[in-house]
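Appendix B. Chain record.
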Amino acid sequence: MSKLVIADLFSGVGGLSQGFISQGFDVEFAIEYDKDIALSYQKNHPSTKMYSQDISTIDFEELKKNHSKIDVVVGGPPCQGFSQKGKRLSVNDDRNYMFKRFIDAVEVFKPQYFVLENVPNILTTANGFFKNEIIKGFEDLGYKVNADVLNASDYGVPQNRRRAFFVGSLGKEKLSFPKVKNKKVTVKEAIYDLPFINSGEGTQESIYIELATTKFQKKLRNGSKVLHNHVATNHSKVALERLSLIPKGKGKEVLPPEHRTKSIYSGTWSRLKEDDIAATITTRFDTPSSGLFTHPILNRCLTVREAARIQSFPDSFVFYGSKTNQMKQVGNAVPPLLAAEIAKIIKLDNETAYATTK
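Structure tokens predicted for this chain:
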């Protein structure tokens, strides 16, 4: 039985790809518009053909001539137009063209399965209109579709990250979503083996000082000899003074009036709790005023490597480019461990189907 082959549309740095690869899938090609992110993807997946271009310019029929066998199409198209205020509620709305392109790709490649990932409110906006539109688009192509919101923390990812998934199978029963794991992984279990560097310290390549002590740490360090991307933000004097006033487990509520800011983001100037899961990692986790990204005990925000750990990327996965772009790569990714759980469901379904035809 040959390996299943995937195509990753709107791939980002490759969180979905990474999860599927961990379960034995091969990635035939990926499409990512941002050339810096595409470069990081390519360096981490050298055997995958990367198309770094606008997906609206791609002729899928031509692409199929070079990539004829695709078993699974995965991806997370952007969703700027999915607003209840929109006058034209349609998946064919120009603003939602990227969703249509995903459906177009599925129509051309006719994979056995697809996985579409997006923001949770896509299932509820306009009383579920978009959810129904998307499902109908796939059902018209012969797919059975299941849609739900999954929280990454339920699948071994140390982070409160909720995402919507549409999973389809061609001409079969609907696939079930993976079962929730009871044990949650904490911030401490995820990152406390990494060097305790201070603000402004660290280099793009360094060494491990401590041994891995938890199952999660050992899993993510497996095969990695060099520690990458563990560089702490060089915070301002005022920021360092403010952070020094916040004890373990506390936040801005303990700050004196002169240090209280009016940031609109939840969790600003607050410490991650070491014995709990992290808040959702976004693209600005180097700034205390952007959200709940302050280290549980050190006076600084998370490094790229710490955020990547919380996203469940293995340490062997290296993030390239500017720091801003590295944070974008990490913050926008699907957690690989969550993607792996979905990949397991597809793999098992395919193996079962193969066995029944023997």
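Further analysis of this model is presented in Appendix C.
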